[in-house]
From TrEMBL:
Name assigned to this protein: Cobalamin biosynthesis protein CobD
Top-rank lineage group of the source organism: Bacteria
Pathway: Cofactor biosynthesis; adenosylcobalamin biosynthesis
Topology term for the membrane: Multi-pass membrane protein
Similarity remark: Belongs to the CobD/CbiB family.
Record's function text: Converts cobyric acid to cobinamide by the addition of aminopropanol on the F carboxylic group.
PANTHER family the record matches: COBALAMIN BIOSYNTHESIS PROTEIN CBIB
InterPro entries, per the entry: Cobalamin_biosynth_CobD/CbiB
UniProt KW keywords: Cell membrane, Cobalamin biosynthesis, Membrane, Transmembrane, Transmembrane helix
Record's subcellular location: Cell membrane
Amino acid sequence: MLSGLPPLTLALLLAAGIALDLLLGETRRWHPLVGFGRLANGLERRLNMGRWRIARGTLAWMLAVLPLTAGAAWLCRLEGAAGLALHACLLYLCLGLRSLRDHTLPIHDALAGGDLARARWLTSRIVSRDTADAGKTDLAKAGAESLLENGNDAVFGTLFWFLVGGAAGALLFRLANTLDAMWGYRNARFNLFGRVAARIDDVLNYLPARLTALSYALLSPGGRLRALRCWRAQAPAWSSPNAGPVMASGAGALGISLGGPAIYEGQVEMRPALGTGPAPGAGDIRRAWRLVFHSTLLWVACALALGAILHLTGAQHA
């Protein structure tokens, strides 16, 4: 482990960070990622101009991510309880499990209660597609897709890199993922400047995304083979190499159809089909949340089991 911590200790800290996230949720004021977003915007305004846009974007990425990651690694080297607590607290700040629940289940409640206007407003807060004229099926689809995809970005990718590198690994992943969300667009402004940010996120997400897709398939309520078939057949057609496996497997696991048409900036975009079965309804948002939550419990159980095995094996050889 790059963190230098024993595997069992790291697994226990992972469980503690998740518990803190579920108990406390997002900090309502002064969230570190909000401050990081302001830093990233400032760097982009100053560097995204003139020639050498790819090099400038690379420099901006390094200035935004590396000092913070190095600082986290240095702080977590504190001995004793203080260093361990910092690992758990930084993981908590990087996680977004409860945030996923708090932002998506109200959409389910609004749709179930027939409040379409509120459902549209709530959905507009978490997706970039247009929701002003969205129907119930469109909103349920957006909510389910957001849960499945962000389950990887906000939860499982962070947990994977925490197990690899402790709090510094989790922070590195979360900051890189945030910069991809801010700069990783193929448009005139960001196509060159954000290219390195997008590629780094693709690399960091490659293994976590496939472990997430596998988790969704394993925990499918009756559709493991269906989820695996959807992953294999449909993921290559999706524009993102990592979102494709996650969303295809998740849609197959739930037995619903995702993808298809969505409106962005007034234009209809035809996206590849994902999953198989009926169009999603309000209840499928709650089902998607349960799939993400149960997958999180699976990751915790696997981390603790592996940590215990390695601990016992090491003790026998000592």
